[in-house]
Amino acid sequence: MPTALLLENLHPHARTILETAGFDVVTRTGALDESELVEALAGVQVLGIRSKTNVPADVLAAAPDLEAVGAFCIGTNQIDLHAAASQGIAVFNAPFSNTRSVVEIAIADIISLTRRLTVFDKEMHAGVWNKSATGAHEVRGRTLGIIGYGNIGTQLSVLAENLGMSVVFYDSAEKLALGNARRMNTLDELLETADVVTLHVDGRAGNAGMFGAKQIARMRPGSIFLNLSRGFVVDYAALRDAILSGHVAGAAVDVFPVEPKRKGDAFESELRGLPNVILTPHTGGSTEEAQEAIGQFVANKVRDYLTTGSTNLSVNLPNLALDQRPDAHRVAYLHRNVPGVLATINATLAEHGVNIEGQLLATRGELGYVVTDVSSPVPTDVVDVLAGRPESLRLRLLD
């Protein structure tokens, strides 16, 4: 029976799906540090995490039984994807499941900051009645600048426009503008145009520190800033200075460079205590609906990989969408993408009298993935020959 280790309070559906598929499931509530993770992964085939658990190359190297990692979130920068691929470990994430939840909290933040609800709320709780329209605005007619026009950015664009906002966006890749949204040619052009600036970029290393004092200074005086993407992309000390000076009228931040690993741990940030600033504990996608959808999506992908060999939507392996064939024996072979591999597989099977019923090949950069359905059990000699090839990364028999 394969074993799955699920960390960080994943939705119960993830456990149910894997247990129904025949997995022995172990759950832990918090994240683990690297030494704890190495110990916990002994004999484990599937690891399920969210954003707090780091899975670097040395952890992967110390987990020879590991076959798949499920990131029950959007980001995968906490996992060494290249090292995982080189060891034949498939990684899956949930690129769409919490999109709506993130968009809705962005809309809520924009309205709350533009109306200065945080300031009014704090004063009312302190017993101060301060009815005033000063600094409070409607979002209708204001311009939203979206940096990163992907799944979240595009849906936010549509909803913001429905609220009467004008939308501009900037993305380093070519993107189709939805509705009346307008693409800005440069980041500076967006910053000089937008009343509200919101970041929705991914976790690639090149985005580290992309938004600092220089970019904040280019923002319009009195504008609003949101970061619901990655904590390491923003210089929060520079943002603090801009808020205290009044250049930035308010901010909402959901992600931080260093975040507590467990619920109840102390949280420190230079943004604490600032006026008209909303701080949330990385909960942009944390709604019950989103977590349920993520639990189902990622658990199903991991289950399918181990049972059928399907790598559809894997973030680090060549993608093949496969169904179960109960009348066939399946050889799933991950290898380096070099000439002659397919011929070697077929010749080896033919030499041992194994008839091929179906075969699919996909490549992705330096990796190749061949899945072969055969009519009879695969002899041990075939496994030994293919697994011993210099280009071999991982061979699995799926019956």
Write a brief caption for the model:
This protein is 32% helix and 20% strand.
Beta-strand percentage range = 15-25%
Helical segment tally? 13
Q: How many runs of DSSP E, i.e. beta strands?
A: 16
Strand order of the largest sheet: 8-7-6-9-10-11-12
Catalytic activity: (R)-2-hydroxyglutarate + NAD(+) = 2-oxoglutarate + NADH + H(+); (2R)-3-phosphoglycerate + NAD(+) = 3-phosphooxypyruvate + NADH + H(+)
EC number: 1.1.1.399, 1.1.1.95
Pfam family, one: ACT_AHAS_ss
Keywords: Amino-acid biosynthesis, NAD, Oxidoreductase, Serine biosynthesis
Primary descriptors:
7-stranded parallel sheet; 13 helices; 32% helix; single chain; alpha/beta; 5-stranded parallel sheet; 16 strands; 399 residues
Description:
There is one protein chain. With 399 residues, the chain is of the alpha/beta class. Helix content is 32%, strand content 20%. The chain has 13 helices and 16 strands. It has helices spanning 12-20, 34-40, 57-61, 81-86, 99-114, 117-125, 151-162, 187-193, 213-218, 236-245, 288-308, 341-351, 380-387, and strands at 3-6, 24-27, 46-49, 68-71, 90-92, 143-147, 166-170, 182-183, 196-199, 223-227, 248-253, 277-279, 329-336, 356-364, 367-374, 392-398. It has a seven-stranded parallel sheet with strand order 8-7-6-9-10-11-12, with helices on both faces. It is elongated, with a radius of gyration of 25 Å. The chain starts with a strand and ends with a strand. The relative contact order is 0.12. The model has no long low-confidence stretch (mean pLDDT 95). GO terms for molecular function: phosphoglycerate dehydrogenase activity. Its EC number is 1.1.1.399, 1.1.1.95. This is D-3-phosphoglycerate dehydrogenase.
